[in-house]
Amino acid sequence: MKISDYEFWFVVGSQFLYGAETLRQVEKNSRILVDELNACGKLPCKVVYKDIVKTADGATGIVNEANFSEDCAGIITFCHTFSPSKMWINALSLLQKPWLHFHTQFNLTIPNDEIDMDYMNLHQSAHGDREHGFIGARMRKPRKIVVGYWKKPEVQEKIGKWMKSAAAADFSRNLKVMRFGDNMREVAVTEGDKVEVQMKLGWQVNTWPVGALVEEMDLVTEAETDAKMDEYRSLYDFATDDMETVRYQAKEEIAIRKMLDREGCKAFSNTFQDLYGMKQLPGIATQNLMRQGYGYGGEGDWKVAALTAVMKFMGERSAFMEDYTYDLENGLSLGAHMLEVCPSLSDGKPRIEVHPLGIGDREPPARLVFEGRAGKGVVASLVDMGGRLRLIVQDIECIKPTQTMPNLPVARVMWRPEPDLETGAECWILAGGAHHTVLSYDCDAEMLRDFARIMDIEFVHIDKDTKPETLEKELFFSDIAWKLKG
Ligand code: MN
Description:
The protein has helices spanning 20-39, 56-68, 89-94, 117-122, 125-138, 153-173, 194-201, 210-218, 222-235, 243-263, 284-291, 302-314, 421-431, 445-455, 468-485, and strands at residues 7-13, 46-53, 72-79, 99-103, 144-147, 176-180, 204-208, 237-238, 267-269, 295-297, 318-327, 332-336, 351-354, 366-369, 375-384, 389-399, 412-417, 436-440, 458-462. 47% of the residues are buried. The protein is elongated. Helices cover 40% and strands 23% of the residues. The chain is of the alpha/beta class and 486 residues long. Strand 6 (176-180), helix 7 and strand 7 (204-208) form a beta-alpha-beta unit. The mean pLDDT is 97. Helix 8 (210-218) packs across helix 10 (243-263). Strands 11-12-17-16-15-18 form a six-stranded antiparallel barrel. Strands 2-1-3-4-5 form a five-stranded parallel beta sheet, sandwiched between helices. The structure holds manganese (II) ion (MN). Manganese (II) ion (MN) is lined by residues 298-299, 322, 337, 436.
């Protein structure tokens, strides 16, 4: 499913106490609110007005229906009037979909001349939503709280971003990852508990032999390869005459894509240590697959492969990345990979180049080379802490690389991490963040925090205000809390 295929159910809290006329007005106002949200252009998914909850059975009925609906990616609740929360307990204990508590009010201001007790009883989310908030807190139910007037663009944008996180939760729970070979020998951070990951995030991570990929490559026709080469010509500049090398990459891409699609996989990993029967490490093959939304992780890093797919689902310009080397004088990190940087990060038209690869003992592979664009973004890393997963997100400011680097044969992005390189790297290392990350211009920390909350994994954010001494304490307490939580 695409993100726009999902819908969110709008459920309004009330009760019978105020009489039929009030309930009619609640429904009328709520339908107007939903219609305008759908027309505002800030939401990636449709909002469906569902019903007014007036009884416990009514709440439970809606939640049961939502749990079984494939299209429904979450519910949005709003208490237009007071809605006693004991009648929500059974429903909320059954709720399996993401929940947004929208604390808004139909009217922006208080009408000085008209206001009377009828008005007060109708427009009382100020305390109705507090009752609703209490039961969420009392039941320890994870929920997103958005506060503000529903016509304000910044409020609508907040809802829109949460929708992406909530839809990504469903994408995540259906995600399959294809591993070609194991992960790179002796590396710790690319390891992880696949059973734990599947329980928490839904990822089905399994392996396929590289030999099967080589057999698939042998079946790729010249016509298929010609078409792929035409696609490369339309998207990229050729800075090589070595067409045979590029054609080999085209065959790799076609074969990998066929295997991924046959198995329903949206992410894959491979490793330069296991290329048995292959002449080149996939370079442009992998890069062009990432452009089409597939997640990828190098050195067998299936966690980052899957996270790349999830973040690409939330925001297209998201890509597998690796902190490579520093400019310590200017506080900058240069990110790249040995080949596999997604062209969605590119500032201009990527070039296809062929260069030898110092690692992996194969023929020189064709790859896309480019500079990343400037702009605000994040880097995100998912690590296995033993018994739980931790998602670490750092705010970054990407800049145009300060030098041209004519001898660097890979795509590169340069950024300044928050709060600065030294403090940011200290915090990152303190939290155990990996060298492999997903860099995104389209996902922000709030979206990833929402995703982590929905999936029930630990979230660590390094931003402009983060201090190592505070973070150290936070991590210490978090460790104890997660162990108690079990
Ligand atoms: Mn790597």
